[in-house]
Amino acid sequence: MTDLILAVLHHLLVFGLVAVMMATRVLLTGPGVDPVRLARLDAGAGGLSGLVLAVGVCRVIWGGKGWAFYEANPFFWGKIACFALIGALTIPGTIAFLKWRKARVADAAFRPEAAQVARLRRLTGLQALALVPLLACAAAMARWPF
């Protein structure tokens, strides 16, 4: 039963994280970018990422398959690499959102540069693309060995 609860929780957190990632992408569209909202959403994404990782570790430790299954599974390591890549791609956005929020607090008329907004939107697209191999690795991992 523990394995089932952890699996359901892990999946719900992942879906929530993907929703927040896509909401960030949507908020980076158009002329009225809201730095405060983006910073809050980004903080939520960071919290969800931490929870996804924590529940994932719990699945590895207390789940039904055990550490030996994951350690020997190349798709597990591929999934971890994709998750790390997505995390690395969020760093420029996090830094920008914090700077933008600070600038907005200092000046209510502050608007981020369009080029920087476009660059961060492209990065969110790369994050979304990195979900494809992550999900492929997750599906292959669950069926290992073939």
Characterize the structure shown.
- There is one protein chain.
- By secondary structure, the protein is an all-alpha fold.
- It has helices at residues 2-27, 35-62, 66-71, 74-106, 114-142.
- The longest helix has 33 residues, at 74-106.
SSE blueprint and pairings:
Layout: H1 2-27, H2 35-62, H3 66-71, H4 74-106, H5 114-142
Main features:
146 residues; mainly alpha; 5 helices
Short account of what is shown:
By secondary structure, the protein is mainly alpha-helical. Helices cover 84% and strands 0% of the residues.
The tally of structural domains comes to: 1
Shape: elongated
Q: Report the β-strand fraction as a percent range.
A: under 5%
The helix count comes to 5
